[in-house]
Amino acid sequence: MDIDEIDKKLLEELVEDGRLSYVELSKKVDISRVAVKERIKNLKEKGVIEKFTVIINSEKAGKTVSAFFEVDVEPYHFQEIAQNLADHPNVASIYQMTGPSTLHMHVLVDNFLMLEDFINGELYSVKGITRVESSVILKRFKSRTGYKL
């Protein structure tokens, strides 16, 4: 899909503040409110904008431990395990990676005891998981909230 400079500017503004009104956006990109509304509608219909949401600071919301996992899974069990982990409330994101049936996962929990329980209960005890590697985040410098076009 072709995204012109106006669409790029609209997307940049929405990434910065998704609550901007059509009027506010129209002033920032110098087109009419109606044109802004139509462009945003088109970007949503074409899947460029997936949804509007809020970003929660996990640490301030009580999830003080953030960890990334590389989880190798036997191919036969891959889809089932990936879906079960995706449905877990502590899994913030999960991706299939290149390599030998590998999942990359971001987990948020309240404390290290909960992290240990997650590792033992949701990973080590699951048939089909062959390797688990974890890294705990010490400090966050930037989180993805969108990207520059």
Automatic annotation (TrEMBL):
PROSITE patterns: HTH_ASNC_2 (PS50956). It holds the Pfam family HTH_24. Residues 3-64 form the HTH asnC-type domain. It comes from the Bacteria. Keywords: DNA-binding, Transcription, Transcription regulation. InterPro entries: ArsR-like_HTH, AsnC-type_HTH_dom, Dimeric_a/b-barrel, Tscrpt_reg_AsnC-like, Tscrpt_reg_AsnC/Lrp_C, WH-like_DNA-bd_sf, WH_DNA-bd_sf. This is Lrp/AsnC family transcriptional regulator.
